[in-house]
Amino acid sequence: MNAKKSIRTVSIALLLAGAVLGMGYAVTPAAKTGGTAPALAAGAPTVPANFTELADRVRAGVVNIQVSKKISRAEFPHVPGSPFGNRNPFGEFFGPFGNRPEGKRQGVGSGFVISKEGYILTNNHVVEEADSIKVKLAGGKELEGRVAGRDPKTDLALVKIDGAADLQPLKLGDSDALKVGAWVVAVGSPFGLEQTVTAGIVSAKGRVIGSGPYDDFIQTDASINPGNSGGPLINMQGEVVGINTAIIASGQGIGFAIPINMAKEIASQLQRKGHVTRGLLGVGIQDMTPELARSFGLAEAKGALVARVVAGGPADKAGIKPGDVIVKFNGQAVADGKDLSRIVASTPAGRTVTVAVMRDGKALEFQATIGEMEKEKASATANDSSRQSLGVSVQNLTPRIAGELGISGNDGVLVAGVEPGSAAAGAGIRTGDVIREVNRKAVRDVDDFIQKLEKVRGGDSVLLLIERERGTLFVPVPLR
Predict the structure, then answer these.
(1) Distances (CA, A) of 40 to 46, 48, 91, 134, 202
(2) What's the rounded Cα separation, in Å, for the pair 35 and 41?
(3) Average pLDDT of the chain to the nearest whole number
(4) What is the pLDDT of residues 282-336, one digit of tens each?
(5) Which of 11, 272, 314, 432 has an alpha carbon 20 to 30 Å from 468's alpha carbon atom?
(6) What CATH architecture is 385-478?
(7) pLDDT tens, 185-226?
(8) Annotation marks residue 78 as catalytic
(9) Active-site position among 203, 211, 223, 229
(10) C-alpha atoms less than 13 angstroms from C-alpha of 210 in its C-beta half-sphere
């Protein structure tokens, strides 16, 4: 895992006795009558007899990933509503780097083989910014690895190795079919202890933990620790249903895995193109609340409320208007705003889809041709002059981000991170601020922002126009 994104965790024992309740039993027909709790069929299995056969079947496809990388202290942006508060939800999940000064560090993570050609799926934070990657196969053979593609938004990455014979790819399952309470097994290298197998159940699905715009995690109580990151979560049929990714810092038996159904399409694009292309509808949305549902004459607080439509975008051309409530997209029901964002992002650009909305109590359908989300560039490398002198990481302000922030226009850059102790931090610049101007000159995008900063001499102050919480303020920042 990226050392900038570390979590502290406590190793726990899996309490099978507590996990057994309410699962693994068959309900008898007679138990459905009367006011008592359902009876459990005599002799029904409670837990699997053992996991030996399953472990033997999947171990050969799980690898240990060792990386060398340059790390530095960085502030993880606070995500409103995140159960992790101001902490990075990934914490020390990738290895015992801690919050150390900049320098070379070694780290360890996990991954699993998905093709005989040598492609390995893992987490982005495992290989991000790595100077070198070494992949150790189950048999002990070590090979050099290279990044075939990364997708920071879903924390997925594809690593390629060459020269390996008889690779045994793991079978990818169906995470949508996974049920809460089902038994699962996690395999990986916690604390560098290779081929460690732990078991537990699926505790919940669809968890949003504040790690990115497409959060949809499987929660499990299978023991997961630093170094497990990128390893597979396996169902009882020996199929991968998730990629182990995060844990809560002070939690016990609370781990999170990326659903394999999300990872399948991402991995396919990373293999073909090295990056991910996402669909764009061109709307700013918000979740429905019971109060909003009543005001819009809806029976349920479901769907995504369109707060803004980007002029000339796919939604605008289709006839969608502010105030519409999107309830279905391409035949899929839309539960809330995050649900819509995930579905739209996974839709190929150029595809025409049916968007079902509620408008003034009437059900309407529109045909929208999906656009392509622009790539968001970030000036986050340690060598950028903007980072060295100002102490911020920035990314382009896209229509989607502007819509989510409730601001107009796409000119400017979004502050994605602020270096502790930097000039920006001292001036009060925050993650989530939008920089509109540098020295009274409008900022178009990341490249324009960097060019304008490079014109400022060291030791001088730079005057930034910041948009924050729908208000603006000028902030003078002395450059170092």
Answers:
(1) 10, 17, 42, 50, 21
(2) 18
(3) 77
(4) 888 888 888 888 888 888 889 999 888 888 889 999 999 998 999 999 999 998 8
(5) 314
(6) Roll (2.30)
(7) 999 988 878 889 999 999 999 888 777 777 889 999 998 888
(8) no
(9) 229
(10) 18
Q: Is the pLDDT of residue 72 over 70?
A: no
Judge whether 279-372 and 385-478 match in fold: yes
Question: Which residue out of 6, 110, 151, 155 is catalytically annotated?
Answer: 155
* CATH match for 279-372 among 2.30.42.10, 1.10.510.10, 3.30.70.920, 2.40.128.50: 2.30.42.10
The percent of residues in the chain predicted with pLDDT above 70, rounded, is 76
Domain 1-275 carries which CATH code? 2.40.10.120
The one-letter amino acid at 231: G
- Catalytic residue list contains 229: yes
Which of 6, 125, 215, 341 is catalytic? The answer is 125
Q: In three state form, how does the secondary structure of the chain look?
A: CCCCCCCCCCCCCCCHHHHHCCCCCCECHHHHCCCCCCCECCCCCCCCCCCHHHHHHHHHHEEEEEEEEEECCCCCCCCCCCCCCCCCCCCCCCCCCCCCCCEEEEEEEEEEECCCCCEEEEEHHHHCCEEEEEEECCCCCEEEEEEEEEECCCCEEEEEECCCCCCCCCEECCHHHCCCCCEEEEEECHHHCCCEEEEEEEEEEEECCCCCCCCCEEEECCCCCCCCCCCEEECCCCEEEEEEEEECCCCCCCEEEEEHHHHHHHHHHHHHHCCCCCEECCEEEEECCHHHHHHCCCCCCCCEEEEEECCCCHHHHHCCCCCCEEEEECCEECCCHHHHHHHHHCCCCCCEEEEEEEECCEEEEEEEECEECCCCCECCCCCCHHHHHCCEEEEECCHHHHHHHCCCCCCCEEEEEECCCCHHHHHCCCCCCEEEEECCEECCCHHHHHHHHHCCCCCCEEEEEEEECCEEEEEEEECC
Q: Can 155 be counted among the known catalytic residues? A: yes
Domain boundaries, the chain: 1-275, 279-372, 385-478
Q: Tell me: pLDDT of 43 over 70.
A: no
Query: How high is the pLDDT of residue 402?
Result: 75
Contact 277, 270 (CB under 8 A): no
Instruction: Evaluate if pTM is beyond 0.70.
Output: no
pLDDT greater than 60 at residue 7:
no
Q: How much is the pLDDT for 378? A: 35
